[in-house]
Structures are given as structure tokens and as C-alpha cells.
TrEMBL record:
UniProt lineage: Eukaryota, Metazoa, Chordata, Craniata, Vertebrata
Subcellular location: Secreted, Extracellular space, Extracellular matrix
UniProt keyword Repeat, yes or no: yes
Keyword Secreted belongs to the record: yes
Gene3D superfamilies the record matches: Immunoglobulins, Mannose-Binding Protein A, subunit A
Protein's organism: Goodea atripinnis
SMART domains assigned: LINK
Recorded name of the encoding gene: HAPLN1
Keywords of this entry: Disulfide bond, Extracellular matrix, Glycoprotein, Immunoglobulin domain, Repeat, Secreted
Name used for this protein in its record: Hyaluronan and proteoglycan link protein 1
Disulfide bonds, paired cysteine numbers: C108-C129
Amino acid sequence: MGYHKRSYGSFHGRVHLQGSSLMDASLVMTDITLDDYGRYKCEVIDGLEDDTVVVSLDLEGVVFPYFPRLGRYNLNFYDAEQACRNQDAVVASFDQLHDAWRGGMDWCNAGWLSDGSVQYPITTPREPCGGKNTVPGIRNYGLRDKDKSHYDVFCFTSFHKGEGHLFTSGLVPI
């Protein structure tokens, strides 16, 4: 947009271009929240010399299984999102659950993930959890109906607050 810069939605007032030099297209994000986790794509268009960078913003934190006091498998996807928010968390992504599994998480009950799939991590295979003759891993029920299906949920929380430099472009003047 030329010299005009705008930020939209939840990014308004929290992002800006660093602009330390004429060719600097670094995006700076402040007050990082759990919802900022994910992949970002930055495209700088400069005539024939375009540049695209994809960067992942990973937050350190903890994944934990959650089920309501009323019992297991009572949450549709939208109730699961709210349950995590009530715990100052968000629904965990597959990558976050995978990292937790690699760290030793073993949980035999299936839970929602942020992509609408239902999965659970097993480090010690056993009969009630897919069978004792199976390999350790993340069991996947696949995508489920977000309104009608009911499971537990895996939540992710982080106490990370701060500033992140997400993109740096190495454009050369033409």
C-alpha cells in the first residue's frame, strides 16, 4: 500500500513495521497472546523483485487435558473452546499436542484439537488405549462434527508476554 500501513482486527495497535532502513520489512508484534500462535506469511511486492517469507510463531507453554466436572466426553467443539478460555488457555494444535507427547504425555481419553480433529497421545500402549501391541503415538479419530460430537479437549496455555520480530526481508535495492 505504498507508504500507507494499516493493521486490522486483533492486530490493530499491536503490530508495526520496524523500518530501521529503507529495505527493512520486519514486522514487530507486541502484547503476544495465545491466539497469535501459528504461521505467518509476509509478501513484499517491489516490481519484479518480490519476496515471500513464512515464519512460525511458537509459544512455549503446557498442554493439558480438560474435561468438565459432569464427566468425560461432554464437550462439543464450541463448548471445548469456551472451557479452554475459562482456564486462560486455547484449544491446543496438533503440533502442540505432538510436542507434549514427545515430552512424555500419555492420556487415554480423546480430546478436541484446534483443527476440529479428535486425538489423544499414548506413550505406553495398553488395552484400553488402542491395544498393548500397538506402537506409541498420537491416536487420531479424524475430523468430527463440531456441533454433534462430544469429547474432552486438550488445552494449551503460556505465560508468554512480550514482543516478537516476525519477519525480516532481505530485499536488495533495484
